[in-house]
Amino acid sequence: MEELLKYQGNLLKNFQSSWYRYLFKDLLVQERLLGIKGLRGVGKTTLLLQHLKEILDQGEKGLYVTAEHPYFYNQTLFELASLWYSYGGKVLLVDEIHKYPDWSRELKLIYDGFPELRIIFTSSSALDLYRGEADLSRRLETQILHGLSFREYLSLYHQISLEPIDFQDIIENTLRISDGLIKKIGVPVLPLFKEYLQAGYFPFTKELKAERIPQRLIQIINTVLESDLSAIQGYSASNVIKIKQLLGVIAESVPFEPNISKIAEKMHLGRQTVNIYIKHLEDAKILNLLYEQVKGISQLQKPGKIYFENSNFLFSLQMNPSSGTVRETFFMNQLRNSGRLISLSKKGDFLVDEKYTFEIGGRNKDKSQIKNVENSFLALDDLEYGIGSKIPLWLFGFLY
């Protein structure tokens, strides 16, 4: 225990972070068992340590551990929780729980055996927290930490602090909203938006030189495939090679309209295997899959289109991604991250909440493709101010 407390003390001594992600104030900290999922690099560890400092400042006993710590070479998570509980510990924070082999069974035992102990843990997006060895569905609450919104990027990178804006307000009051934000931002917004699209989705890129960012993003993708998915899905080295090949095929032409049979034949795989790989890449937050419907989607239903999860991945894997693909990737990412339902539209590019049709394009795009479509809008790039159904694309970066 002394070893872990010393490790925690060293972490906190060197930890300085006065900037908080959107999820911090909404953390369900009173839940007895809370799981926080998210893509690598979005700030889950920082979030845990910020909450730990808050706990300690309030006089509570909190302990942070990472599942990769050598302590677990000969001790179990349950044994640690039992010992911490005997010390009067109230909160146990476990980072990267997917690295611990019996996480679900032991979390259940801890939950049932130590009713006054709260457990908050982080995991890879690829981990299905409800399908562990033990049934946690009645005990567990989960929250997702997404990458930075454009609003958060402005705050972290440029010290421009603004509040989130509701989707309904954006589409109903676009001129007032865009005019008000531009005045508050005080500098040209479009160059900042271009920076965000290329390298502003992850907090850590703030500390990197521009030329190092693509390499670091590719490293994140490789780590997700080689470490997270291998551990969670039991991938062998040959599985990882195949899934990298599949990602390479997709990267050549996103948004990718998949022909599963052709992909399977080209890669010498079964159709079902290809579908499973694609679904695992979505679970891991590498891809975003777009379907014709948002409800009742089968695990192996073929998506209508495949996008990368965020535009930063797109720039890291393609030298010059098309502006249309970048725009659509951003729109889909920010709408999904803010909790909106988004699917393929019969007319236009996207259907939001099964009601609103959106066509994405540059500032000169007209409504000819969505003419006479009720509740239809244009989300336009290179446009500062919106009016009527013409909405600046960057505004959708203020949803969370």
Number of discrete helical segments: 14
Terminal CA distance: 39 Å
Q: What amount of the residues lies in strands? A: 5-15%
How many extended strands?
Answer: 12
What radius of gyration results from the CA coordinates? Answer: 22 Å
Low-confidence stretches: none
Q: In terms of structural class, how would the helical and strand content be classed?
A: alpha/beta
Mean pLDDT: 93
Tell me about the largest β-sheet: 5 strands, parallel
Protein name: ATPase AAA
Domain AAA+ ATPase: 30-150
InterPro entries: AAA+_ATPase, AAA_14, P-loop_NTPase
Essential attributes:
single chain, 5-stranded parallel β-sheet, ATPase AAA, 14 helices, 400 residues, 5-stranded mixed β-sheet, alpha/beta, globular
Structure description:
InterPro entries: AAA+_ATPase, AAA_14, P-loop_NTPase. Residues 30-150 form the AAA+ ATPase domain. This is ATPase AAA. This protein has 400 residues and is of the alpha/beta class. It has 14 helices and twelve strands. It has a five-stranded parallel β-sheet. Strands 8-9-10-11-12 form a five-stranded mixed β-sheet. The protein has a two-stranded antiparallel sheet with strand order 6-7. Helix 8 crosses helix 13 and helix 11 (260-267) packs across helix 12 (271-283). The longest helix is centred in the middle third of the chain and has 21 residues, at 213-233. It is globular. The mean pLDDT is 93.
